[in-house]
Design a protein that fits this description.
12 helices, binds 3-methyl-2-oxobutanoic acid, alpha/beta
């Protein structure tokens, strides 16, 4: 494990002040968390996107608090120093402020998170306020919010029209007022993201497919390495095709076992002749 100091909220705000973009990825398991910590990521999001990327659901809606806690614990074991954000799953915060506080507390106490994220703007500002007042750093998520996919009519850019963009801006202001330390803008036009970054002064603004003007960038890990078979969003750059590498390895394994070229002596364990002879004698 690399020697690195633990990333704190203060360090994130210092990066913003210096004009250095914050690096952030999703992650759902121990070995990937280990690699992300080694690579020097500032932040990890254990997103409820794990419902799609890891569990194979069509949407994020079936994901439970138990799913989230289990995966977040594994990620924390792999990345002890990264700033870790737990993503509150569907219906873990929408019903009431009290439920939101209780479940946010579980991410902190049971999974070692540094902060939580929830989706929604003006209508969820009281949840953010309640969580922040309980001493838990909380961030909002605006634009394309996958838990509302049915109401939004699918995975599409949000805020293309002036009226809708104004609503996103109003929500960002409401989250800022409620005490959110950070806001993620997913799939909003770059100019809307720029305006929000300039005008919402007390929050760090992060972009997922919302352009270069935010204080940092987030990508879905599975999209950047060709690991999600159903689709690749336009905003996701493929930094390496691990999916292809793994598929080729799997095909080679099938071929080598079938044609008996695997295993080779270096892949198995032997036994001394005298021990083997003694064994045979015992069996006679
Ligand atoms: O669950 C997740 O990974 C997310 C991202 C889409 C931002 O919320």
């Amino acid at each position: 494990m690399t020697e690195r100091t633990k990333t704190t909220l203060t360090m994130l705000f210092n990066k913003v002040a210096e004009g250095t973009p914050i690096t952030w990825l999703t992650c759902y398991d121990y070995p990937t968390a280990y690699l992300q910590e080694e690579a020097g990521l500032d932040m990890i999001l254990v997103g409820d996107s794990l419902g799609m990327t890891m569990l194979g659901y069509e949407t994020t809606l079936p994901v439970t608090m138990e799913d989230m806690i289990r995966h977040t614990q594994a990620v924390r074991r792999g990345a002890p120093n990264v700033f870790l954000v737990g993503d509150m799953p569907y219906m873990s915060y929408q019903p009431s402020v009290e439920l939101a506080i209780r479940n946010a507390g579980r991410f902190m106490a049971e999974a070692g998170c540094d902060a939580i994220k929830l989706e929604g703007g003006v209508e969820m500002a009281d949840r953010i306020r309640g969580i922040v007042n309980s001493g838990i750093p909380a961030m909002g998520h605006l634009g394309l919010t996958p838990q509302s996919i049915s109401a939004l009519g699918g995975f599409k850019v949000q805020g293309k029209g002036a009226l809708q963009a104004k609503k996103i801006m109003d929500s960002a202001k409401a989250l800022e007022k409620a005490g959110a330390f950070m806001i993620l803008l997913e799939m909003v036009p770059d100019r809307v993201c720029k305006l929000i970054t300039e005008r919402v002064e007390n929050c760090i603004i992060m972009s997922l497919g919302s352009g270069p003007h935010a204080h940092g960038q987030l990508l879905i890990y599975h999209d950047m390495f060709g690991l999600y078979p159903r689709f690749k969003p336009r905003m996701a750059k493929v930094f390496g095709n691990a999916g292809e590498v793994i598929l080729n390895g799997l095909k080679d394994y099938v071929i080598e076992v079938t044609e008996k070229s695997f295993p080779q002596p270096e892949n198995w364990f032997g036994m001394k002749d005298e021990e083997y002879e003694e064994l045979l004698a015992m069996l006679d």
